[in-house]
Amino acid sequence: MKYEATIGLETHVMQKTASKMFCACKYEYGAAPNTHVCPVCLGYPGALPVMNEKAIELCCKAGILLDCEINPYSKWDRKNYFYPDMAKNYQITQADEPLCIGGHLEVEVEGTLKTFTLERIHQEENAAKNTHVAGASLVDYNRAGTALMEIVSNPCMHSAADALAYLAALKQIMEYGGISDCNPEKGQIRSDVNVSIRPVGQKELGSKVEIKNMNSFAFIQEAIEYEINRQTALLESGGTVVQETRGFDANRGETFSQRTKENAHDYRYFPEPDLMPVKISKEQVEVWRSELPELPAQRRERYVKMLGLSEYDAGVLTAEKATSDWFEQAMQHTKNAKAVSNFVMGEMMRLLSEQELTISESKVTPEKLSEIIALIDAKIISTGAGKQVFEIVFNEGGKPKQIIEEKGMAQVSDDSALDGWADDAIAAHPKPVEEYKAGNTASINFLMGQVMKASRGKANPGAVMKMLKQKLDGC
Fold first, then answer.
1. How far apart are CA 203 and CA 214, in angstroms?
2. Is the dihedral of CA 428, 429, 434, 440 positive or negative?
3. Are 188 and 180 in contact (CB under 8 A)?
4. Could you tell me if 79 and 105 are in contact, meaning their C-beta atoms sit under 8 angstroms apart?
């Protein structure tokens, strides 16, 4: 019997707010444990929450970007559970009246355009960070109460490739929209992955297994693939899949059972008595819509249609918002989009990878790259010399023009200087000269190489080729 997988994702995204969701404490990644806390986020009796208006705005803007309906009336609920990461023993969230309803995301998966639908986006507060060490568990409440959205997809994906493409597109949109930095290493985007399988053709979904709290796309792929194979083998052997929560062991590449899956009634949801409902007008939604920035798909289209870049180049440049923003800044100082693209995709990405840096940490600024490109376009230096200058600036800093002068890297275009090198090459190599005269025009490339060698790469290739042709055709 053939089986098909069904996958849904519950993706938690930390929003870019200055303070937490229901109190004035700020969140600072890496701060000393339990230093950004107050009676509200520590759950002291009598402490009352106050809504963060910016978080609600960002949640609704995320909904607009994902084509959700913005709910004109939403409310808050308490999700009750006992665990050290929630000091109040309940989480303020939205159970049945979320801020955003429905929505969809169009994604290209292995060359095919697919549409993945959303169930909802709701606003809630984050939990604290637990760290388990030998013989103890430590809790840092700095993260407790930070603004958190949960983006819930429908069970509409059928492979690990679907899930990864969906997550990559979602991450891009959240970054470009200014909703979140979506740094997985800082826990700013993480997903609960729901996987089930069923016989092909069966309408009813199989028993759902949830893999919790995953912040690595690579591990999500491994976990989905492992879980599909595990459930398939279980059914083929006559067993049954139990609805449960499982973890993922990255070292072994396997999921493992944690607990039987809770249902909604296990959390004893009830309306939050300390917060008023949220009412959002159509006029407010339109104001937020007008404030939204250009999205990656729109930017890719602009790069192709207006800057003349290839689809591939546009895709690479917009894959990370920081890279695309850097490219945008460079384009404010030059019109040579292809040259900027080549340097960013070539030298820049290679050096960043080798030295494990981000583009914002590079000593090559957009202005300096534009200066290097201008020097190449003016034929003051060759493209090869430009790459050398780029690497020197990247590693050591400095000004491109000053580096060129100090290292004598400027091209030689003066006819009097080129004349001697060209004559020497022709005199020393009669065979390619005769071949050229006999009609093998490619032989001139050998002579050109000799001139470039004699000039130590400083000769202007265009000027060399022109002079060699004049001399050979006139002989």
1. 29
2. negative
3. yes
4. no
What's the CA gap between 49 and 76, in Å, rounded?
Answer: 11
Q: How far apart are CA 471 and CA 331, in angstroms?
A: 41
Three-state DSSP at 22 gives: coil
| Nearest CA among 210, 103, 114, 104 for reference residue 162 | 114
Token couple for 419: 């004349």
Contact 152, 118 (CB under 8 A): yes
Distance of alpha carbon 268 from alpha carbon 265, whole angstroms: 5
Mean pLDDT for the stretch of residues 56-62: 98
Contact present, 340 and 365 (Cβ < 8 Å): no
For 375, the token pair is 């020097």
Cβ-based neighbour number of residue 273 at 10 Å: 7
d(CA 27, CA 278): 24
Is 456's pLDDT higher than 80?
no
Calculate the CA 288 to chain-centre distance. Answer: 24
- The pLDDT-based confidence of 436 (bands split at 50, 70, 90) is confident
Q: Are 217 and 184 in contact (CB under 8 A)?
A: yes
Third-level CATH fold of 415-474: Arc Repressor Mutant, subunit A (1.10.10)
Q: How far apart are alpha carbons 320 and 65 in whole angstroms?
A: 18
Q: Where are the domains of the chain?
A: 3-284, 294-407, 415-474
Query: What's the whole-model pTM score?
Result: 0.83
Instruction: Provide the 10 A C-beta neighbour count for residue 337.
Output: 18
